[in-house]
Write a structure and sequence with these properties.
By secondary structure, this protein is mainly α. It has helices at 2-9, 16-39, 46-81. Helix 2 packs antiparallel against helix 3 (46-81). The N and C termini lie far apart (36 Å).
C-alpha cells in the first residue's frame, strides 16, 4: 500500500481515482481501528490501546490532508480550464 501511495504521489498529474481510493482506504483503517478497540477492549493493554488510537489519529490526519490536496488539485484544474 505504501509503495502504491508513493507511486501515485510521484506522478506528474493527480489521479483523482487514486486519491479517492487512498482517502477511502485510510478511513477504513481508522474505522477498523475504532471497531477493534470497541469490540474487544480486553484484547490490548492500556498502552497498546493508546498506540492503536494514536496511529488511527495519524491515519485520519493523512486522509484529511489527502482530501484537502485532492480538492485543491480539482480547483486548480478548473481554474486552468477557464
Amino acid at each position: 500500500y505504501a509503495g502504491w501511495l508513493l507511486f501515485s504521489a510521484r506522478r506528474p498529474e493527480v489521479n483523482v481515482w487514486a486519491g479517492r481510493a487512498a482517502i477511502i482506504l485510510n478511513m477504513l483503517w481508522v474505522a477498523g481501528s475504532v471497531a477493534l478497540l470497541a469490540a474487544a477492549p480486553g484484547l490490548f493493554n492500556t498502552l497498546r490501546q493508546w498506540l492503536v488510537g494514536i496511529v488511527a489519529l495519524v491515519v485520519a490526519d493523512f486522509a484529511l490532508m489527502q482530501y484537502l490536496g485532492l480538492r485543491r488539485a480539482g480547483r486548480a484544474a478548473a481554474a486552468r480550464a477557464m
